[in-house]
Every structure is written in C-alpha cells, then in structure tokens.
Write a structure and sequence with these properties.
Number of helices: 12
Radius of gyration: 20 Å
Number of strands: 18
Number of domains: 3
Structural class: alpha+beta
Distance between the termini: 39 Å
Length: 364
C-alpha cells in the first residue's frame, strides 16, 4: 500500500513514521529540496501544480492525503478525479477560507465569535460599529501560526492593520475573552466510524502553540464531541480533524478547524493507546480505528526557532524528544517533547522544567 502526501514537513514525517510498522510506503510531493520527510519515502520535488509530478503521484499512490491546509484546493480536486483523496477537497476548501469556515460553523449551529467579511477600509470601519472593540482582523486565506492577523484595540489601529493586509480579502472577528483554549481531535474512517481523543488544553504565545496538555475526562468533552461530529458528518470527512475552541462562560465557541493531523495532538504519540498519526492512516485506508484512551497524564512542549541541548532534554525522566531534522529559524517549529507522568503534580513540574528550556532558545 502506497500513501501519497502533499507536503513533506514534520507532520508528513510523523505520519510516515507511524505507517512503517503497518507496512505502508510513502511518496511525497513538496517544493523544498530539504523537506524533512524526504528520507522516509520517494520525494517528488516541485510545485504542487506541476502536471507531471501530479500525474506521477496519482498513478503511484493508492490514496493521497495532505499535511497542511494551504495546499491548493484545485490540486486536491485534480487528484481526486484520478485516485482517492482524504480528507476531501471540500474540507480543504472550507478550511482554507476563514469566511467559508465561519459560515459553515454557523450553518451547523456551532457557535463562533461575531464576525464580518470586509473588503475595504470603509467596510472595516462599518463592521466595527457592529463587532465592537477589541477585535481581530484576519486575512481570509493563508493564515497560520498567527500570520495575517492584527489586533484592533481602537479606531486608531484600523488604517495600519488594513495596510498590512495589502489588499487581501479579510474577516474581522470579535475578540473573545476566554477562560482557556482547547482543541478536540477526532478521527473518522471511510466506513463512517468515529473516535475522539480527550480534549487538549492549549497555550499559545505570539499566535504559535507552545504547550498542549491532555485533559482526560474534561467537563467540556461531550460538547466538543457533539460539535466535531456535526462537522465531520456534514463534510463526509475521512481522516483526522482538529477543532480549536474557546471556553467562554462554561460553553465552547469554535475558532477554526484543521483538516489534518494537528500540533495539539502530538501528545498522542506516547500519551494515547493509538497516536493521531496511526489513526489517520487507519482512517484513510479504511482500517479499524485504534483506541484513543490516554495513557497516564501527558503533555507536549514545542521548541520554536531553536533547540536546547539534546542531552539536557534526554536527562529528564519521562521525556520523549522528537527532532524534525529542520534547521533553526525564527518562528519555526523545530522539535517537540512529550512527557508522561503518574499524577498532575508530577506533570506540572515536568512541563515547567521543559518550558523553561524551551524559553531559553525561543526565537519566535
């Protein structure tokens, strides 16, 4: 069985590492010569729109998936006419456009912050009379890790924020005063079976995820499962999907969804019976889905821009280091560590120790 992956970054790398014990081979399409997954399968180096490379990928792969949502949707559409593509091109198209995404949530009865589409400074000024202050101006497309976003605190911020978008289509959203940020990772296979991982509580700084902690038996679990189920059924979704949410006044409000394996689920590699990466492969190959039960208390810490000494990380009991084989660069995720503990107190101490090391090399 050969799985094709659009993109060959760290997520593709972790999918491939999960697939080899299952006897799965991989072929990657990625423009970068030094893409970090390229040692784990055949690497088709070139543009995602390259007709020759797309034809080869479609011919060789039994099923195609993708590791990030900025792959051109028309590429997924083309491949879907020649081979199986999971998740579907429709899911990719909705996730790529924040306005389509918010509208989709609204139509499914999933609550979101107040929002409005804007296409000029004048329409932004008009929208603010309804949305109110503070708010966040976001590009509708090509946004991740806080890119293409500006916080609007007063009318004085509007001109500069709009100028930064350089004419891009945009959406303005009410700023949410949340208790915490959480995400739920769910998996649905071709046959329609769905499993859910425990909620992750997430800490972001500068728009980039820093820490995710598994919240087994969380009081918000049932509500999150209801929302993500609704989303997956409406999209006839196959694969792993991550739904990011805010907890506000005891209720969940949807922020966005990612149609792929997700950074907030990296703890599942050591912290769950079956990792999100293995379950993604099981789903797209229509195999029985693995148990998602948490194993102990667990969390994940990202390393951004730089990396502590490997010896310092491996000296920490219960720490599991994952290097991405990526050169350090400002704002770049270069590695993560997962930790498992017997109780919450031990987990808190381990997370504090690792975040201290991460902060020392952080170049975001």
């Amino acid at each position: 069985m050969i799985v094709g992956i659009l993109g060959a970054g760290q997520l593709a790398r972790m999918i491939a590492l999960a697939g080899y014990p299952l006897g799965v081979d991989f072929i990657f399409l990625d423009p970068s010569a030094d893409a970090c997954a390229n040692k784990l399968g055949k690497h088709l180096q070139g543009d995602y729109n390259d007709p020759r490379l797309l034809a080869e990928l479609a011919e060789r792969a039994d099923v195609v998936t993708y590791e990030f949502e900025n792959v051109p949707a028309d590429v997924a559409e083309f491949l879907a006419s020649h081979t199986q593509v999971h998740p579907s091109p429709k899911a990719l198209a909705v996730a790529q456009d924040r306005l389509l995404e918010k509208t989709f949530f609204h139509d499914l009865g999933i609550p979101t912050p107040a929002y409005a589409a804007v296409d000029s400074l004048e329409s932004l000024e008009q929208a603010m009379a309804i949305i109110g202050w503070p708010a966040i101006l976001k590009s509708r497309t090509l946004g991740y890790d806080g890119k293409g976003q500006s916080l609007l605190k007063s009318a004085d911020d509007l001109k500069s924020a709009w100028k930064q978008l350089e004419g891009a289509l945009a959406i303005v959203e009410a700023f949410v005063s949340f208790k915490r940020e959480v995400s739920i990772i769910a998996v649905r296979n071709v046959s329609g079976a769905i499993v859910f991982y425990p909620l992750s509580e997430n800490l972001h700084r500068g728009g980039i995820l820093r820490v995710s902690e598994c919240c087994d038996a969380d009081v918000m679990q049932q509500q999150a499962e209801a929302y993500v189920s609704r989303l997956m059924e409406a999209l006839d979704y196959v694969g792993v999907l991550a739904l990011e949410l805010f907890e506000v006044d005891g209720k969940l409000v949807a922020n966005e969804f990612a149609p792929r394996v997700h950074n907030s689920g990296h703890w599942t590699i050591e912290g769950a019976e079956t990792s999100q990466f293995e379950n993604h492969l099981r789903a797209i190959l229509d195999l029985p889905l693995g148990a998602t039960t948490a194993v102990g208390k667990t969390a994940m810490i990202n390393f951004i821009g730089g990396l502590p000494l490997t010896e310092d990380l491996l000296a920490i009991a219960h720490a599991h280091l994952h290097l991405y084989d990526k050169a350090p660069r400002k704002g770049r995720k270069v590695a993560h560590t997962t930790v498992r503990a017997e109780n919450n107190e031990q987990l808190t101490a381990l997370v504090k120790r690792l975040t201290t090391l991460a902060d020392r090399v952080d170049d975001s």
